[in-house]
Design brief:
Layout lengths: L1 H4 L1 E3 H7 L5 H9 L3 E3 L2 E2 L6 E3 L5 E3 L2 E2 L7 E6 L28 E3 L7 E7 L2 H8 L7 E7 L5 H9 L1 E2 L5 E2 L3 E7 L4 E7 L6 H8 L4 E9 L2 E2 L8 E3 L2 H20 L1
Parallel strand pairs: 9-15
Antiparallel strand pairs: 1-4, 2-3, 2-5, 5-6, 7-9, 7-17, 8-9, 10-14, 10-15, 11-12, 13-14, 15-16
Helix pairs in contact: 2-3
Length: 253
């Protein structure tokens, strides 16, 4: 039974080892660049035993990479992908060139800013983004109008988008306002694609800035724009505990 639980598809095993993404691993396997115990394998789903089978890429053994967890303050105008067909700058332009393979945990769209996690721990990344963990994501959003109680209630109650979805927020509050615009704090416990933008677009409200300031208990703090730092062990433990707690509450609800 234990041996069976330790089996994984070859592409997934390479991703779990922190060698590359699962999609990239599948490409390498199909191209005939991967051997398992000396035998060439071309099927990304070939079962392998973690910690037992010897995996080689281009003749070089693959060992588990040291786990890396980074925090980035993403600026506006940067794409959250490994590469871009339009040759636009990606978050990788902000990282050190000598880092091993690393991937963003979830996404922030080009016009959005703020807290973005990156890691080579694909299983941990999947937990952070999984709907069942319900980690709160906190955003500060500047809109091109003065917010009132009716707008806040509409966001809490749910807004029907032009695509036909009904999207809501866990909570929303006014942060501050000027003569012609307002800053809102919006908390989501699930995040569909362009969730906040689609809600406000449906209400014909212009978004001037959208900044993610926290993921669960992890706050962006005073990290400078475009700056990167290592997630501390205490911060990772706090995120892990938050995920365990929300997953447990979800099971019992």
């Amino acid at each position: 039974m234990v041996a069976h639980r330790n089996r994984a598809g070859l592409a997934r095993a390479l991703s779990k080892l922190g060698y590359c993404s699962r999609a990239r691993a599948a490409q390498l396997i199909r191209a005939g660049q991967v051997r398992v115990n000396g035998v060439l394998r071309r099927d990304p789903e070939t079962p392998v035993r973690a910690g037992t089978d010897r995996i080689e890429v281009d003749g070089r053994p693959v060992a588990a990479a040291k786990r890396i967890y980074l925090v980035l303050n993403k600026p506006c105008g940067i794409i959250t992908t490994a590469s871009d067909e339009k040759s636009r700058d990606t978050v990788y332009a902000l990282l050190r060139a000598d880092l091993p393979w690393i991937a963003p945990v979830g996404r922030l769209d080009k016009a959005s800013e703020g807290l973005l996690l990156l890691t080579n721990d694909s299983e941990w990344a999947a937990r952070v983004t999984a709907p069942e963990t319900h980690l709160d994501k906190t955003y500060h959003v500047q809109i091109g109008k003065i917010a009132d109680a009716a707008l806040l209630e509409s966001l809490r109650s749910g807004v029907r988008t032009k695509e036909g979805d009904t999207l809501g927020v866990k909570d929303v509050a006014m942060l501050r306002q000027g003569e012609r615009n307002s800053w809102l704090e919006i908390i989501l416990d699930e995040g569909k694609n362009r969730h906040i933008r689609r809600m406000l677009e449906a209400l014909n409200i212009e978004i001037l800035r959208l900044v993610r300031v926290a993921i669960g208990p992890l706050a962006l703090g005073h990290l400078a724009k475009s700056a990167v730092r290592v997630l501390t062990p205490a911060e990772k433990l706090s995120l892990d505990r938050a995920m365990q707690e929300t997953a447990k509450n979800s099971m019992h609800s």
